[in-house]
Design goal:
By secondary structure, this protein is an alpha+beta fold. 58% of the residues lie in helices and 20% in strands. The chain has 10 helices and 8 strands. A 3-stranded antiparallel sheet has the order 3-2-5. Strand 2 and strand 3 (77-78) form a beta hairpin. Helix 5 runs antiparallel to helix 7. The longest helix has 43 residues, at 208-250. It is rod-shaped and about 140 Å long. 13% of the residues are buried.
């Protein structure tokens, strides 16, 4: 009876091993072995540092600048405490590896992108993206190359945004497009430890034929406005002349004064011109004689 029971337990253990029932125990055992091995290697590394004093200090002590951070990995695992720096930090030879991360703002000039707008017009758009690393540990641990990924995402986002807008919005609403693009990039790169600070649309290049058509349209609109303004000016001038003629007609002396003022203006413009004033009464006399005949 005891043999049967022991065989039953043996079959249960075998079933757990085959069907994964003991997978958790196996993983825990692997983790314990890895930690034990890591402790042994750490002790050996300290022994090596002590034996090679003071030459080992040149290898163990590292310095990062004010604008840099160091992300340390010990036996392939991220060291607790986050990124180190600025200043001096300590690493163990053979088991520690570190990566320097620059926290300064970087500028990426997006090359011209050929985009088909919402109203089926092909334009070439380029922009500038200002970004920096906000979390050094995340930028190393979560993505292979945070800078390259951010640049590729910026190009794709620029094409997508421009393809969803008509041409007149692209030309007139650059500021809102830049803000929208910044919000999208900042949200997407937050998990990479990247902070997008600013996005600016540099230039929007139109096809030459479209430029000529728009220039002709603008010139025609300007000419139409100029004709309207000239017509309005003529209308106002005619009204003013009619009022002036009514005032001069009421007073004969006013016509004589206007005549003398005109002569004064002509003599001031061209001094070489000799003007002989002719009294208005003589002209009136001849006109009356002609009517009598």
């Amino acid at each position: 009876m005891t043999t049967i029971v022991s065989n039953g337990h043996h079959h249960e253990d075998y079933a757990k091993t085959v069907f994964g029932g003991g997978r958790g125990d196996h993983e825990e055992q692997v983790v314990e072995e890895s930690e034990t091995c890591g402790k042994i290697l750490t002790v050996l590394s300290w022994i090596l540092v002590c034996l090679t004093m003071p030459f080992s200090l040149m290898v163990c002590f590292k310095v990062v600048q004010e604008y840099e951070r160091a992300v340390i990995f010990r036996l392939g695992r991220l060291l607790s405490g986050g990124a180190k720096g600025p200043g001096i930090f300590f690493i163990l030879p053979c088991i520690d590896a570190y990566a320097r991360v620059d926290l300064r703002t970087r500028t990426y000039d997006i090359p011209p992108q050929e985009v088909l707008t919402k109203d089926s017009v092909t334009v070439s758009v380029d922009a500038v993206v200002y970004y920096r690393v906000s979390n050094a540990t995340v930028s190393i641990a979560n993505v292979e190359n945070a800078h390259h990924s951010t640049r590729l995402l910026a190009q794709t986002t620029l094409r997508n945004i421009m393809g969803q807008r008509p041409l007149h919005e692209i030309l007139s609403e650059r500021e809102s497009i830049s803000q929208h693009m910044k919000a999208l990039l900042d949200e997407a790169t937050d998990s990479w430890g990247i902070n997008v600070e600013r996005v600016e649309i540099k230039d929007v290049r139109l096809p030459i034929q479209l430029q000529r058509a728009m220039a002709a349209e603008a010139e025609a609109a300007r000419e139409a406005r100029a004709k309207v303004i000239a017509a309005e000016g003529e209308q106002k001038a005619s009204r003013a002349l009619r009022e002036a003629s009514e005032v001069i007609g009421d007073s004969p002396a006013a016509l004589q004064l206007r005549y003398l003022q005109t002569l004064n203006t002509i003599s001031a413009e061209k001094n070489s011109t000799i003007v002989f004033p002719l009294p208005i009464d003589m002209i009136t006399y001849f006109m009356k004689a002609k009517e009598a005949m």
